[in-house]
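Cross-check.
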Amino acid sequence: MAGLNERKQKILHAVVTDYIQTAEPVGSRTISRHYQIDLSAATIRNEMADLEELGYLTQPHTSAGRIPSQQGYRFYVDALMDATGLAREEEEYLTRFFMQLEKMREIDQIVQQTARALSVITRYTSLVLAPQIKQSAFKQMRLVPMENGKALVVLITDTGYIRNKVIEMPKALNQKEIDFIVAYLNKELSGQTIATLTAARLRKLRSDLYLHTDILNSMLTMLEQCAQNPENRVFLGGTSNILNQPEFKDVEKLKHLLTLFEEGERLTLLLETSMDGLSIRIGTENVLAEMKDCSLITASYSLHGRPLGTIGVLGPTRMEYARVITIIEEISQRLNKLIATL
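Predicted model, tokenized:
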């Protein structure tokens, strides 16, 4: 922020605002004509040169105007950006959309539709991390006898996540013992997140039910697998929207980004690091090299204050930050309320 007086801040604000709207380098005459800055074009040009020297602007071509650098965008987002509300049509769209979601009972279906809506309303690419099994709370485990000495173990979490596993049933086990084991696990684990199932916790459960080790091991192994090997579930929306951005007319740059969209595990890791409120990552602040020319805005969604997943919007660094932040925060809040009613 060194050397950024009020005059420089106004000029930087004008450059970023104009470039976001036009995708064209901004010259001093444009600033003097279209923005309320009471300075001559020559003075504005000198200030822009200073901003470039300080690292807030860059000049793509010698004869062209200037564009914001990553540092310029960061200062704009942190200190200069004007707050904005939802436009009337955006408010109406979200109201209609969430009325439709209220009819759905499957959380995966809800977050998948949210990805689609988020891309439609922002006109960027959306990424939504479905509720992670590790963050889900244990709700119920069932054991359903099958033929040929087998049984189906069914795990159900408070987010509606269901995982099944077929196990071998010990022949000596009667129905009363089966009911006792299932009731014990449901009582001991109710309300606990899968992530809290530490090795020590599992050892205690095995110790408590040492007479039924065989079947208990099969059931606990399933829980361990859920905690250690969660499924990667990222829903994308509007991937073709990236094609509408002039920054991605470079085929090689676009190819790397589209390839990334197919790598669910890497996207999951990316979004898992953003499960703590609102996050704005600009350019190389993103950990993935393919996103060095992008900005990613994310917000977590929760159940009773416990983060479950992440919704995000990916676009060029020349993103409509204020508008996207307003939309993503609104959707996150509405999603929290909806999930709490499931």
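Residues 296 and 314 are 5 Å apart (CA to CA). DSSP finds twelve helices and ten strands in the chain. Passed to J.P. for a second look.
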